[in-house]
Specification:
eight-stranded parallel β-sheet; 11 strands; globular; alpha/beta; TIM Barrel
Length: 480
């Protein structure tokens, strides 16, 4: 019967049927299921509802914030935390205290797209995904994913909300850009699979985002509800392209974006709140049995249209398992309880999500009380292995687009007069120094008077323009 429903859905929406292809998620096992069933059997309803929530946590907000979190852990029995700004030692101490206060250990998540440094000070920064996407060697992406996973595990983080599998097809995208592996869908798929496997081999859940695809947008879902106005054929061929191969290889979790995708749901509802997208497409047609996370529910893409509590209920009814960055857990739980009483949602549906959450917790080791060791934490989060992998990645990511007149390598131009103009806020002497290892190159330092530079260039056979981008943030605009 389910196969027939899936076939009908595929025929109606014009998709190739993937039914029966999907592999069980990495966390699914007989042992995980037995443990989850044993916990679920004795868990009160309100505690089950608590497991659905992952609340924002900060290690730089002081005692009042920690007391707020402690109350949610002890009274509301929340299932997890997503950590944002702070530092590793502070986060480890808070995590230990909150894990000690929780009856069922907390699942800890972080946006760790280029490692823990995306959120935390004093931690190792791996290259952005676009840099990794420039490499030919996906085995190196796997090794970086494995090391990222080990660092997450060391800090008591169980879910890395990565990789970003959006195809970067729109250069005006204000929120994805360098977070993507690039604009080539096959390259994005290959590197996403490698990153996923590395993370999950380290015992950390990978989370492919932002479903069904945030690459071709010109708006930021933190501020509004962007629209992806492509038809079914284009969505299948580009936006959705990386997901099925990852699902087929045991992907642990998916994050659904706050996007309007009219071809998938003509109501204008955000994908994250759409049963047609979350349940019919991702769960039924694509056969995904892993955890489904909403994107953060405080984002204006949904919070501008729904009140706290209402948005959580809508997300749950759509088919999500974990409500990320819930703003008012007591109000949301009350809304869900009312919906249960009105038969808008069933207890069987709640149990399905909670069982998935518990099985995932078993996979990451949360069937036992965890404790983060503080000794040598900094050293472990910035290992020689990480340094070596970063160096290898930067070497492999160097890209020669066009070698006009065969000017590269410049060592063959030693008889020419060569100048190098260095541009950009972060310009330094490193590139010029490297050039001088192969040929004599005169440098024009950053800030040199433009007229002086222009008047001098005519005497050179070759002029190299070295432009330095600011790598402080992937969200920074590079328009000039």
């Amino acid at each position: 019967m389910l196969k027939n429903k899936a076939a009908l859905f595929c025929a109606a929406f014009g998709f190739v049927s993937f039914f029966g292809v999907a592999q069980q998620p990495v966390f699914q096992s007989a042992k995980a299921e037995r443990w989850a069933d044993s916990v679920l059997a004795v868990m009160p309803l309100e505690d089950k509802l608590g497991q659905l929530f992952m609340v924002a946590a900060y290690s730089n907000k002081g005692p009042e914030h920690e007391a707020f979190l402690t109350n949610l852990v002890t009274k509301e029995k929340i299932g997890g935390l997503i950590f944002f700004q702070g530092g590793p030692y502070r986060q480890a101490r808070i995590t230990n205290r909150l894990q000690g206060a929780s009856q069922v250990p907390l699942m800890i998540g972080m946006d760790a797209e280029w490692g823990l440094a995306m959120r935390l000070d004093s931690t190792f920064k791996f290259p952005w995904q676009m840099t990794l996407g420039a490499m030919q060697d996906t085995a190196l992406t796997y090794a970086i994913g494995l090391e990222m996973g080990k660092q997450c595990k060391r800090l008591g983080v169980h879910v890395s909300f990565s990789p970003v599998v959006d195809i970067n097809t729109n250069p005006k995208n204000p929120i994805i850009n360098a977070r993507s592996f690039g604009e080539d869908k096959k390259r994005v798929k290959a590197h996403s699979l490698a990153m996923m496997k590395g993370l999950q081999d380290a015992g950390v859940l990978a989370c492919a985002k932002h479903f069904p695809g945030h690459g071709d947008t010109e708006a930021d879902s933190h501020k509004t509800l962007p629209a992806v106005n492509h038809g079914i054929e284009r969505l299948t061929n580009i936006e959705l392209f990386p997901y099925q191969p990852m699902i087929n290889k045991g992907l642990g979790s998916v994050m659904v974006a706050h996007l309007s995708v009219p071809a998938l749901d003509s109501s204008g509802e955000a994908a994250s709140l759409s049963p047609k997208i979350v349940t019919d497409l991702l769960r039924q047609q694509m056969g995904f049995e892993g955890l489904i996370f909403t994107d953060a529910l405080n984002m204006k893409g949904v919070s501008a249209r729904y009140q706290p509590g209402e948005v959580d209920l809508a997300a749950l009814k759509a088919g999500n398992d974990i409500l990320l960055f819930a703003e008012d857990v007591p109000k949301a739980k009350a809304a869900i309880l009312a919906a249960l009483g009105n038969n808008e949602i069933s207890i069987e549906r709640i149990n399905q999500s909670v069982k998935r959450i518990l099985m995932a917790k078993y996979f990451v080791g949360l069937n036992k009380k965890p404790s983060i060791k503080l000794q040598n934490l900094s050293a472990d989060l910035s290992s020689p292995t990480a340094e070596l992998l970063k160096e290898r990645a930067m070497q492999q990511a160097q890209t020669l687009l066009i070698n006009r007149n065969e000017m590269v390598p410049i060592s063959q131009l030693a008889d020419k007069k060569i100048g190098c103009v260095q541009l950009g806020k972060n310009a330094d002497q490193n590139f010029l120094n490297q050039l001088n290892l192969f040929a004599k190159v005169d440098g024009f330092a950053p800030g040199t008077d433009p007229n002086t530079v222009l008047n001098s260039l005519s005497k050179y056979d070759l002029v190299i323009a070295a432009y330095y981008n600011d790598d402080a943030s992937t969200w920074k605009s590079y328009k000039h």
